[in-house]
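Before going further, learn to read the protein records used in this course. The integers have meaning only within a learned vocabulary of local backbone shapes. To see the layout at work, look at the sequence and tokens printed below.
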Amino acid sequence: MAAPLELSCWGGGWGLPSVHSESLVVMAYAKFSGAPLKVNVIDKTWRGSRGDVPILTTEDNIVSQPAKILNFLRKQKYNADCELSAKQGADTLAYIALLEEKLLPAVLHTFWVENDNYFTVTKPWFASRIPFPLSLILPGRMSRGALNRILLTRGEPPLYHVNEVEAKIYRDAKECLNLLSNRLGTSQFFFGDTPSTLDAYVFGFLAPLYKVHFPKVHLQEHLKQLSNLCRLCDDILNSYFRHGPVAFSSMNRNQ
């Protein structure tokens, strides 16, 4: 019998199995590849000090970061890309790099830096799911981490401050969404009728932006104008997550 695969991650809301993009990437890939994950969502029993999830735990391994987790699953013969050509594999890597450079900063800004969104939606949601006194500390730490990540990728001299890069962040994100929409076209998934790694990444990055109810919605409004990307998110939710995330548990390992 294969060793159990347990994924520690943030939980769901707004019809999503997780509101956390990187957790969603792994959960979607597991669905596409048939990996039998047991999902342990962070709750009041959590004893971690950081929000560094998702984390995949097996009998012999602890793996973090989506790319490393997906590579681990592929080595365990759970491969959602086995039917892709070499060119499609190269395109997958190029589009994932584009997502991380052009779209992720805007997603992070929407959740963690935009004040109205952070104080009315993001902070209360995350704080309600972690134990006191960590609930007073961790959301702010995650917000600062998101800001640092944005500045690391987009804060090129002389644009060192987030206010100076905000316009560029959202301009780049909208261009990225337009490119994704054009690439998807009328296809069910990015490479035909079967979902792959790229679909998992696009779903993970877009679904929270699409579904979470924010007071400031400028990027969300642009996404909702791209009906094929919204349809992709809805189709994945309806086809793969109608009955829950993967195999669900509210009890979490100590991290």
Notes: The CA atoms of residues 114 and 216 lie 8 Å apart.
